[in-house]
TrEMBL record:
Residues 152-262 form the FAD-binding FR-type domain. SUPFAM superfamilies: Ferredoxin reductase-like, C-terminal NADP-linked domain, Globin-like, Riboflavin synthase domain-like. FAD binds at Y190, R206, Q207, Y208, S209, F395, F396, G397, P398. It is an enzyme of class 1 (oxidoreductase). Consists of two distinct domains; an N-terminal heme-containing oxygen-binding domain and a C-terminal reductase domain with binding sites for FAD and NAD(P)H. Its cofactor is heme b; FAD. This is Flavohemoprotein. It catalyses: 2 nitric oxide + NADPH + 2 O2 = 2 nitrate + NADP(+) + H(+); 2 nitric oxide + NADH + 2 O2 = 2 nitrate + NAD(+) + H(+). GO terms for molecular function: FAD binding; heme binding; metal ion binding; nitric oxide dioxygenase NAD(P)H activity; oxygen binding; oxygen carrier activity. Residues 1-138 form the Globin domain. The keyword NAD applies. In the C-terminal section; belongs to the flavoprotein pyridine nucleotide cytochrome reductase family. Belongs to the globin family. Two-domain flavohemoproteins subfamily. Heme b binds at H85.
Length: 421
């Protein structure tokens, strides 16, 4: 436990962290990777190059300072981060390294303003915060390894099938090389893929949502090719699309993640996705159909056009069921899309459409997709009076805020700015 004086010192740094947070975290990564380049085998290089990780970590430090006297308030977010840490292989021995370089970065950026008293207070606070993460992750490692069909670390899976779903998305059906049972998962969860790519100095790890329902003898991921040159995001997706073949081996961690469908509830559920954000939604949709055939589900997907729209036929088949309603939005439909009636609405998912077509008053809302799409959906739902308890979403990559401004409000309401690795 931290004494009152230490808490007061930490809280006094909140304005400074708000102003200089990203400078501190940028310097932190420079220092840490300079001294421990081996950690680049764990961290996402693309997020580093794009500055997304620096921003996300700055939000974490800022929020930790705000809630240092009430860390219980951010336990749900600690668990969310811990899921990702477990899937990546973050271990207790990594935390002292992170703590050391975070303190060095604070001192380096703030200079004389970072007094010995402040540095000592943050050292104490970091120890408490790290302990919370280590404890949560230890429990998750135990569950992952000891559950039915579970395992620790990364396990070899064979690419049993590789299916082109659209011009940009390909599905990979993965079965365990040892032919033993695989762990179940909750709809919405993801797995991590570890790749050693020729010509790359470090390994790459990426998380991909599972795009089929649980209970199968395989895992399915549906991967979007990230185009553009140079594009650090595309290193792994292009390798999977171009180099990985049926019969190849991929290293996979056990399913993780807390963005999951609540199957204990029976009220209507609305699943909204943009682009490749449909992958966790497909798992949720199929799960409702299989486990809750009486539960009303509305599946809303937005894409540019039919050329990039994946898994359409699967949704069309499910939409024949009495409890399933589907609506497809294309903002740039092709002439072929028009002639073959491949979509329902031309344009974007709007607040007005939601108000007229979904059960606003009692539904649960789950959404995932590009950040602009998610901001628009989040804003529309809030504008329609949907309470945050019924709003569920996931970022692909480091978590950020769906608010357009007022960081304090976003953190206080949903702790949306918290994330680490």
């Amino acid at each position: 436990m931290l004494d009152q004086k230490t808490i007061e010192i930490i809280k006094s740094t909140v304005p400074v962290l708000e102003q200089h947070g990203e400078k501190i975290t940028t310097r932190f990564y420079q220092l840490m990777f300079g001294n421990h380049p081996e950690l680049l085998n764990i961290f996402n290089h693309a997020n580093q190059k794009q500055g997304r990780q620096q921003k996300a970590l700055a939000g974490t430090v800022y929020a930790a300072a705000m809630y240092i006297d009430n860390l219980e308030a951010i336990i749900p977010v600690v668990k969310q981060i811990a899921h990702k840490h477990r899937s990546l292989g973050i271990k207790p021995e990594h935390y002292p390294i992170v703590g050391k370089h975070l303190l060095l970065a604070i001192k380096d950026v703030l200079g004389d303003a970072a007094t010995d008293e402040i540095i000592d207070a943050w050292a104490q606070a970091y120890e408490v915060i790290a302990g919370a993460f280590i404890g949560a992750e230890a429990e998750m490692y135990d569950v992952a390894a000891n559950q039915k069909g579970g395992w620790g670390g990364f396990r070899n899976f064979i690419v049993d099938r590789k299916v082109i779903e659209s011009d940009v998305i390909t599905s990979f059906y993965l079965k365990p090389e040892d032919q033993k049972e695989i762990a179940g998962f909750e709809p919405g969860q993801y797995i991590s893929i570890l790749l050693e790519i020729d010509g790359e100095k470090f390994t790459h790890i990426r998380q991909y949502s599972l795009s089929d329902a649980p209970g199968k003898d395989f895992y399915r991921i549906s991967v979007k090719r990230e185009a553009g040159t140079p594009n650090p995001d595309g290193i792994v997706s292009n390798y999977l699309h171009d180099e990985v073949k049926e019969g190849d081996i991929l290293k996979v961690s056990a399913p993780a993640g807390d963005f999951v469908l609540d199957t204990e509830k029976t009220n209507p559920v609305v699943l909204l996705s943009g682009g490749v954000g449909l992958t966790p939604m497909m798992s949720m949709l199929k799960t409702v159909v299989e486990l809750q055939p009486e539960r009303k589900v509305t599946f809303v997907h937005a894409a540019a056009n039919g050329n990039v729209h994946a898994l359409r036929e699967e949704v069309e088949e499910l939409a024949q069921l009495d409890n399933v309603n589907s609506c497809i939005f294309y903002d740039s439909p092709t002439e072929d899309d028009r002639q073959n009636n491949r979509f329902d609405v031309e344009g974007y998912v709007t607040r007005e459409w939601l108000e007229e077509n979904v059960a606003i008053e009692d539904a649960e809302f789950y959404f995932c997709g590009p950040v602009p799409f998610m901001k628009a959906i989040n804003g529309s739902l809030k504008g329609l009076g949907v309470t945050y308890e019924r709003i569920h979403f996931e970022f692909f990559g480091p978590m950020g805020s769906l608010e357009n401004n007022e960081k304090d409000t976003a953190i206080a309401e949903r702790s949306e700015d918290l994330v680490t690795v």
